[in-house]
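User: Structure tokens for this complex, please. No commentary.
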Amino acid sequence: MTAVGDNDRGLEKYLRMQRIRQFENKAEAIHAQGEIPGALHTYAGMEASGVGACMALRDDDYMVGNHRSHGHPIAKGAMLRPLMAELLGKTTGICKGKGGSMHLSDFSMGSLGETSIVGSGGPVAVGAALGAQMQGLDRVALCFFGDGASSEGAIHEALNLAAVWQLPAIFVCENNRFGMSTPTSAGVAGENVADRAHGYGIPGVMVDGQDVDAVEIAVREAVDRARSGKGPTLIETKTYRYGDHAVNMGRELTPRGPDHEDWLARDPIVLHRLRLLEQGVPPAALDVIEAQVAEEVDDALSFARESAYPAFEEAFDHVFVDRLPIPEDVLAHA
Amino acid sequence: MARITYLEAIQQAQMEEMILDSRVFMMGEDIRCNVFGTTTGFLEKFGEARIRDTPISENGFIGAAGGAAIVGMRPIVDATISSFLFPAMDQICSIIAKSSYIYGGQARLPLVIRSCLFYGNSNAAQHSDRPYPMFMNMPGLKIIAPSNARDMKGLLKAAVRSDDPVLSFEDSTCWTNKSEVPDDMDFVIPLGKGDVKREGTDITVIGIAGAVNIALKAAEQLAREGISIEVVDPRSLVPLDHELILRSVRKTGRAICVDPAHKTCSAASEIAATIAEYAFEALRAPVVRITTPDTHLPFSPHIEKPLYPSVARIVDAARRLVGAGTPVPA
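Assistant:
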């Protein structure tokens, strides 16, 4: 493992952040054209948080996401084709067209779910950490949740349980300033979510969520603690959501504050690009990455468009291990 | 074969499955102190890692059981009293029931959530729920509700071995009832297979959980009046053995569904509707539901006890259905 800041790792972070941004831009554009059904919650603006955190994980570590999780599997290294196909509701989608935007979970990347009931991923991550510990594996489980979710009982219960049992879990609160239309200041008591760690007797760490290296360093420390049996850590990444709660809703729900422009000026990808240039990375190397990602995203969209929709019978798969019987009267009109 | 109680059957089923499969472990509130007698000797035999006392945090630890199941463990959660499932509805309904589906089969959740139906003993409304019908309405959860020790053991072992999540509703009115139970480690009763507990020709009485035992008592009494009752025990509510129920009703032409749950959308309601929909041509009388009315359970035993299904209510309904009057005492 090379040191944080090393060029190869720096370029890898740049690649993954570019993938997320360009994937999200494409998704938002085709959603506006009606090509993606349902609600679309984009991750643009928060790339440093997801990529920094995932770069501190091993491939076989677990993670749990939420409704705003397109970025998390990409941050951990997932291929774009099955993700884009899922957004279009195709059978080649990562969830075979049954999860969609709020559940872009790639289990081959260690994801154990992206759950759209706010806060509900916390207990799942705790269970995964428990399972890893009981199986004698040195894997850790990382739970991404938002500032809004910090008010949910499930997150409190998860933190408490992980702390009582000293489980290898890392809780990453991505504080993007808003829970839908509610500013964090109106939804979260106290200055910082990370301060709550004190109540559980675990470390609480705040980090600049626009700085991918800072996030990686903070999460790596938590991962090392977890892996060596020292229990969970609560990390708060201070970040910013560019899109509305869900995009293309016809009217803006997010009450942007006077700091809006300041946040946009600290774009995580631009900041990382500047740092790489300072470290002597030639601009051409970064441009190549951007062009390569643009091709990947186009390829993913072509793949998704060319893929078939699921057969109607697939609606009855995976309720249980065995396919459910399909009612004839429903099938007749499907 | 040994004659054991329903609670001992639970203890045996768990013990055997934990011996057979190291992935099986237990978690719940106060299980180490063995509140109801279903974990006798477990802490000594299996150790603290596999017998885990949890904080009073149902949503947290039931969800954690789901997470552990996703990564390859096979948890048995003892949620003690079924009313305590309500704080965990989030994890049960949104995570445990749906994770296999929404991720297109990438996840499997082999876990069992046990809880008892703790009604009839002056524990008031918040501890006396029989909430299985609510979960029958949520796809993705298998449900067992056994009425005797033999079925309890066989079904619980099948539940632990199932790769689907299973809710086990254990009727506290059956706890001390004894029956002959095989001691074969591989004795299992498949989920979704009902059982005819008594054969008869005039009326099919379908009983849910402890109501099976009430139905059997009513059948004894009615037999003395010349009314022949067939008692059907679905044992599993999801999947429900439609075939067995319909076959019996097509034979008898009459049906009474007895269920300790509240009447509206009860298991009895689902079974009654199934009979009306698929066996209408065989019916000689309307399908009857005998349930707990849609009021809460009061504390005072004088007004609590008459609310539940009883032998007297079944006997009355049976007489009505066959057109018999109340026999005049000799």
